[in-house]
Amino acid sequence: MEIWINPACSKCRSAISLLDAEGADYTVRRYLDDVPGEEEIREVLTRLGLEPWDITRTQEAAAGQLGLADWPRDAASRDRWVTALAEHPKLIQRPIITADDGSAVVARTEDAVRDALSRQAQGRP
Known about the structure:
Blueprint: E1 2-5, H1 10-21, E2 27-30, H2 38-48, H3 61-66, H4 78-87, E3 96-98, E4 104-106, H5 110-123
Parallel strand pairs: 1-2
Antiparallel strand pairs: 1-3, 3-4
Helix pairs in contact: 1-5
Keywords: Oxidoreductase
Organism: Streptomyces lancefieldiae
Protein name: Arsenate reductase family protein
């Protein structure tokens, strides 16, 4: 299991605390330092079952500078959104947990973190 975090984010710190309390085996990825590329973002989106605009932090300054509010949210614009996320990782919603069973969740709530933990437990041999 891997968790993408920004250490300054309270939701990320809460998710880590819960993972620690549950004794989870996980790797921390500070995605602002270890930025995911476009292909990795596409893979995580597939695992999440979401589109890039679904995990975009539209209130970030970069979103305003890019004019994301006016970008179409359709298949033809998907690559443009993915590129924006790769070039401006602060736009990526956090935390994101990728489980060993191939699933992923945006872990902004305790329930979402517990969902990731249950998927991880089910994915173990």
